[in-house]
Write a structure and sequence with these properties.
The chain has 247 residues and is of the alpha+beta class. The chain has helices spanning 3-38, 79-82, 95-107, 203-210; strands at residues 70-76, 84-89, 117-119, 124-127, 163-166, 179-182, 194-201, 235-242. The chain has a single domain, classed as Cyclophilin, CATH 2.40.100. Strands 3-4-6-5-7-2-1-8 form an eight-stranded antiparallel sheet, covered by helices on one side.
Length: 247
């Protein structure tokens, strides 16, 4: 048999298995979310583990992302521990979500918020909830900004290490202010959450945030771990700066 033919078949097999594992993972995740909501665990609204199973939006395919002229710079209150994260934005992929994100940044809406979820089980960090500005962690994950929700803008861009995604409630077109960054490939999120950017600097800092100690009394993740930081991992501010940013 031709060596190239064998290689092609093996790669096709690997792709099929990745999709199969992603489907199984997402099914298990949906069940876990249903159980969590039923038993009164952590707020299920606006979190990246709520599958948008009822989505009806068109999926944008075969479009190469074109970075915006501005990047979002996430500066942390504890800069010595967490540094900063720089994210490029993709208005040609998700124009409405990018505009919402930029509007909220200009308003200072993210200043003082926290990464209220740092999940190793999901390989994500999640923030952008205005509720996280207060001292009550029980309401984190359930908040929105005062701006209207944003329609679904799904694409075939995969969720890989450093992808910036828009969190939703599980209902169609329920994106608002919350966002998450994936620290690994998460095939279960593909075409179910809006991709609107990519980390271009500070991915190691995002990893440090994900590995911050968590509250053992918080509701458990699907692997038995917890995902609410023990101490607030707080954003000092998010600013928009020219893409040709200097280190």
């Amino acid at each position: 048999m031709n060596v190239d033919s064998v290689r092609v078949k093996k790669e096709a097999c690997r792709k099929t298995m990745r999709k199969f594992r992603g489907a199984l993972w997402l099914t298990a995740l949906c069940l876990a979310v249903s159980v969590c909501a039923a038993c009164g665990g952590d707020a299920a609204n606006n979190t990246a583990n709520n599958a948008n199973t009822g989505q009806t939006a068109d999926i944008k395919t075969n479009v190469k992302p074109e970075p915006d002229a501005e990047v979002a710079v996430i500066e942390m209150e504890d800069a010595a521990a967490y540094g900063r994260i720089v994210v490029e934005l993709y208005p040609n992929i998700a124009p409405k979500m990018v505009e919402q994100f930029k509007t909220l940044i200009r308003q200072g809406a993210y200043d003082g918020t926290a990464f209220h979820r740092t999940s190793k089980a999901l390989s994500i960090i999640q923030g952008g909830d205005p509720n996280s500005k207060d001292n009550d962690p029980a309401n984190d994950g359930a908040g929105n900004s005062s701006l209207p929700n944003v329609p679904d803008e799904f694409s075939d861009l995969p969720f890989k290490r450093g992808t910036l995604g828009a969190a939703n409630t599980g209902a169609p077109s329920s994106q608002n202010s919350q966002f998450f960054i994936t620290l690994d490939e998460v095939p279960g999120f593909d075409e179910r959450y809006t991709v609107f950017g990519q980390v271009i600097e500070g991915i190691g800092n995002a990893e440090i945030i994900m590995n911050a100690p968590t509250d053992p009394d918080a509701s458990p993740e699907r692997d038995g771990s917890t995902s609410r930081p023990l101490e607030p991992v707080r954003v000092k501010r998010i600013t928009l700066q020219p893409r040709a940013i200097k280190n």
